[in-house]
Structure formats: structure tokens, C-alpha cells
Design goal:
Layout (H helix, E strand, L loop, with lengths): L1 H26 L15 H25 L2 E2 L17 E2 L3 H36 L5 E5 L3 E4 L5 E8 L6 E5 L6 E3 L4 E4 L8 E7 L9 E7 L1
Parallel strand pairs: 4-10
Antiparallel strand pairs: 1-2, 3-5, 5-8, 6-9, 7-8, 9-10
Helix pairs in contact: 2-3
Length: about 220
């Protein structure tokens, strides 16, 4: 009888603790309105997973104790003994053993499922949170003027920085765009004065990143 009472009062204590924590966070203005009980995201799932693991451990110990031989007692709770003073023990029935084993199997399956779901969800969240946002930055950003016979330095910075960037030119057929280092390109126009060439930079590995166009006009 003591074991069920311990579990019941443990659940009650947990609810009281969660309510108190929710009230404190709400008072401090730190509650998350979109989450359960206003607690930080994932708190309830973590408590459920950890509680089930602890309950499983406690019930395993308790049930194993029920399978062991125990002293036989009378209606008043006194241990029965033989005439020579030897304590009388009794073995649990086969039905009781089967019930204990089936209960342990059910609880262990539940614990594994919940723990696997929780840690699996956490792994996905971490992977999504650590995913790098791909971007492409160029300077000048969209238009530039260059004097006839001079060169233009273009700063190209991709994110991540180790991603390859390719470039193409329209309205200028000569090979006058050169990558000097990881982030700098040099363009020497070969078009006539007053004409405009369009340079397009893009990251082939990221299809969702829009190419950057730079229009260069020769003065």
C-alpha cells in the first residue's frame, strides 16, 4: 500500500512544483505564453521523460522485491513461525510472477518510446537550430561606375565562407573578371564608354539563395 501512495503524492508534489514555477516565471515576466504552463519550451517534455525513467527504476525494484520469498504473516501482521521458531516463507504464485513480468515489459516499452521521442525531438531541434543560413553579400551592391581603362574591385562574401562562388558577365564577352583572393574579384571592362555590363554572382550549392547582380557602367 505504501508504494502507490508514494507515487500519488510524488505526482501531486510535481504538479505543485510546476504550478509554483509557472507562477514565479509569470510574476517575473519570463513565462512563455505559447508553451504548456508558461514554462520554457521543452520543460514539460523533459519532466515527463525523466519522471517515467525514475518511476520505471522504482517500480522495477519494487516488483523484484515482490517476486522474492517473503515471511508469511497472520491477520495481525505477525510473522508466522514453525514450532521450532523457524520463519515460514512463501513463494509468489506463477500468476503473480507473470503479471509482474508483463507490467515491467509494458512500462519499459513506454519508457523507451517516450525517451526515444524526447531525445529524437531534441536532436532534430538542435540540428535545425545549428543549420547555417546561406547568404551572399557583394560590394558594390547593385551598381557602379568605372572610368574607361580602369579596374573595379568587387568584394564578394558568401555565408558560409567556404562555399564556392561563380560569376558570369553579360554584355562583355572578354575574360576580364578575375578572382584575386577568397573575397575579392577584379573587373576590367572592355566595353565602350557609356555601355553597361552585368555581372552575376551566385552560390551553386544553394539553390534558394538569390544571385546578386552588379551593373557596371563605363564612364
Amino acid at each position: 500500500m505504501a508504494f502507490p501512495l508514494i507515487l500519488v503524492f510524488s505526482v501531486i508534489d510535481l504538479v505543485i512544483f510546476l504550478s509554483l514555477a509557472s507562477h514565479i516565471l509569470s510574476h517575473l515576466g519570463l513565462s512563455c505564453q505559447e508553451e504548456e504552463l508558461g514554462l520554457p519550451k521543452g520543460s514539460v517534455r523533459a519532466l515527463i521523460a525523466s519522471s517515467l525513467i525514475v518511476i520505471f527504476a522504482i517500480m522495477t525494484i519494487y516488483m523484484q522485491m515482490q517476486l522474492s520469498a517473503s515471511p508469511l504473516k497472520d491477520a495481525d501482521g505477525n510473522i508466522l513461525r514453525y514450532d521450532n521458531g523457524t520463519v515460514i516463507f512463501y513463494e509468489p504464485s506463477q500468476d503473480k510472477k507473470d503479471f509482474v513480468l508483463q507490467t515491467q515489459t509494458t512500462i519499459s516499452t513506454l519508457v523507451v518510446a517516450v525517451a526515444g521521442f524526447y531525445f529524437g525531438t531534441r536532436a532534430v531541434q538542435v540540428a535545425q537550430g545549428s543549420k547555417t543560413t546561406a547568404e551572399l553579400f557583394i560590394e558594390p551592391s547593385n551598381a557602379a561606375n568605372v572610368k574607361n581603362g580602369e579596374s573595379l574591385t568587387i568584394v564578394v562574401k558568401p555565408t558560409p565562407t567556404d562555399v564556392a562562388v561563380v560569376a558570369s558577365i553579360e554584355n562583355d564577352t572578354s575574360n576580364t573578371l578575375v578572382q584575386e583572393d577568397s573575397f575579392r574579384w577584379k573587373y576590367t571592362p572592355s566595353i565602350n564608354k557609356g555601355k553597361t555590363a552585368t555581372i552575376t554572382f551566385k552560390m551553386p550549392i544553394y539553390d534558394d539563395v538569390s544571385p546578386k547582380e552588379l551593373k557596371v557602367t563605363v564612364e
